Amino acid sequence: MNFITIITMLIVLGIIWGGMVFFLTRAIKYEKIKEENGQSEN
Amino acid sequence: MKQEEFFSSRWSLIIAAIGIAVGTGNIWRFSRIVAQNGGGSFLIPWVIFLLVWSVPLIIAEFAIGKSTRYGPVGAIAKTAGKQFGWMGAFIVFVSTAIMFYYSVVTGWCLRYFISAITGDLFSTTKHLEYWTRFASSYQPLFYHFISMVFVAIVIYRGVSKGIEKVTKFMVPSLLVILLILFVRAVTLPKAIEGIKYFFTPHMDVILNYKVWLNALTQNAWDTGAGWGLILTYAIYMKKKEDISLNAALIGFGNNSVSLLAGITIFSTVFALSTSNAMQQISQAGPANTGLTFIYLPLLFSKISSHYIVNVIFASMFFIALFFAAITSLMSMVELTTRTLIDFGIKRGKAIILVASLGFLLGIPSAIDLNFLTNQDWVWGVGLIISGAFISFSIIRYGVDKFRTEIINGYGSDVKIGKWYNFIIGILIPIQVVLLVSWWLISSVSWDPEWWNPFHSANAGTCIFQWAVVLITFILLNKMMVNQTLKEND
Predict the structure, then answer these.
(1) Residue segments in chain B with a per-residue pLDDT below the cut of 70
(2) Closest to B266 (Cα-Cα) out of B11, B33, B25, B18
(3) B456 burial via Cβ count (<10 Å: 0-12, 13-18, 19+)
(4) Residue B10: which of A16, A23, A31 has the nearest Cβ?
(5) Model's pTM, two decimal places?
(6) Rounded to an integer, what distance in angstroms lies between the CA atom of residue B6 and that of residue B212?
(7) For B408, what's the count of Cα atoms within 13 Å in the CB-facing half-sphere?
(8) Which residues contact B129 (CB under 8 A, 6 or more apart)?
(9) Which residues in B lie closer than 8 A to residue A20 (C-beta atoms)?
């Protein structure tokens, strides 16, 4: 695999899979805060 | 009408919305489009358009659905003004027209799963013949019926007992199956060749505007952004739920699945294909199903020397495809059902009406692939117009007001900055004009009689069918909007 392929792979996977993991961890964090604050209204 | 049903938690909502976004397009269309557009060269604009088309429109849909608690007709009337309710009706119609033939496609996946698990799929090596025999029989009609009945039962049970329960099982199962297939595929000998092609960019290709337009189209079609489906599920989200973070998670989650499926398919095809692997991935085949229903079954028979292992992997692939399809189909049926509920029809009656019409109007696609191709073309491009209508309604409402009061309002975990105004107010309209013009102008090159509305895929058939639908809804606007708002106020 050449250099440009590895860089592209890192960028694409980094943004998409990395982004997904990032947003997921943020969502878990904020959900925990909401639960602790007892927000339950509809 | 007081909103009484909700998704039980944030995670239920996210899983259901990922069920909308992840469909057959992530699995069979994505790989084909990557192959046709130079592998890695396609992935770069594809990532960019996730950020400037899909995620902003998913945010918009969540915000409109959550704030208005209406299906698209009432939601657009409330957001853009009563005189624009017909835009919401167009959004509903486009997704409903797609639902008619998507139920047929879902049925194909179910049929191939049954073929795989019973071993019937491996009784032949002539998979094109196998497919043609199936497609020209009445079997697609039967499986279309089964799919529609299954979805009708789920939607009849409502959000928490129906949609939520089924997606909670199917979406995680789909992800686990794809992960298992991914691990098997990347560990096949020569799989690295497929991965190399998948990620290698070519500078001459990346500068081609068609690659960019294809990347935008892929994002518009496979994330579910602008279809009105996420808007419909957002009606059932609790007031305390966040919008932006959930939308980003769904957009990135959807494209993550596309990558997973793409790497799996490229690795498998490059590892097991004895002829030109690229040709096999990029050929559309009948109704764009060539890769999935003709070439992959052949490759599954070569995964290992043990017959049972091949049966297991093929069955896993087709059940994953079925789960992806049916969770998307559910959202389309719910969208139409919810619109009828807004008109004052009870859920039970609405679902019987939608499922019956869905089955009947899906029959032409089940028995004639040309009809399916026509509908896929007309309403696929029509989806871009749906995205434009959502963007338009926010512009009418006031983009900054929409962002600060609704998106960043109660329940928001993160605040969206002013960049959103630029994307919704300027970039989305530009992308719509570019995409619709490009697709219609392109059709002139492949059909000399581009104006003929009775051809399967050209500008004439699109404009004719859109015009009929738009004129009808513009004429019915007052009645539809009054009925929706009267029933619910």
Answers:
(1) 1-3, 274-275, 277, 279-280, 283-290, 487-489
(2) B33
(3) middle
(4) A31
(5) 0.93
(6) 39
(7) 14
(8) none
(9) 249, 252-253, 256
Is the pLDDT higher at B113 or at A2?
Answer: B113
Q: Do A20 and B196 touch (CB under 8 A)?
A: no
Distance from CA of A35 to the nearest CA of B (A): 11
Structure tokens at B489: 């106020």
Q: What is the Cα–Cα distance from B301 to B310, expressed in whole angstroms?
A: 6
d(CA B363, CA B104): 8
* Residue pLDDT, tens place only, B336-354: 999 999 999 999 999 999 9
- Find out whether B148 and B314 touch, Cβ atoms under 8 Å: no
pLDDT band at residue A35 using 50, 70 and 90 as cut-offs: confident
Three-state secondary structure call for residue B190: coil
* One-letter amino acid for residue B25 of the chain: G
With a CB cutoff of 8 Å and minimum separation 6, the contacts of B243 are: B59, B62, B63, B66, B406, B407, B411, B412
- The answer, for A38 touching chain B at a CB cutoff of 8 Å, is no
Residue ranges of the alpha helices (H) in B283-427? 296-300, 307-342, 347-367, 369-397, 399-401, 419-422
- The contacts of residue A11 (CB under 8 Å, 6+ apart) are B44, B47
Compute the Cα dihedral for B71, B73, B77, B82 and give only its sign. negative
Chain B touched by A2 (CB under 8 Å): yes
DSSP string computed for B47-104: HHHIIIIIHHHHHHHHHHHHHH-S-HHHHHHHHH-GGGHHHHHHHHHHHHHHHHHHHH
Contact B443, B457 (CB under 8 A): yes
User: So what's the pLDDT on residue B477?
Assistant: 97
Q: Residue B39 and residue B266: Cα distance in Å, rounded?
A: 10
ipTM of the complex: 0.93
- Cβ neighbour number for residue B12 with a 10 Å cutoff: 20
Which fold, B10-488? Amino acid/polyamine transporter I (1.20.1740)
CA distance A37 to B377: 49
Q: Are B261 and B193 in contact (CB under 8 A)?
A: no
Tell me the HSE value of B231 on the side-chain side, using a 13 A CA sphere: 31
Between the CA atoms of B45, B246, B225 and B364, what dihedral angle is there, to the nearest 10 degrees?
A: 120
Residue A16 confidence (pLDDT) above 90 = yes
* Residue B65 to residue B76: CA distance in whole angstroms: 10
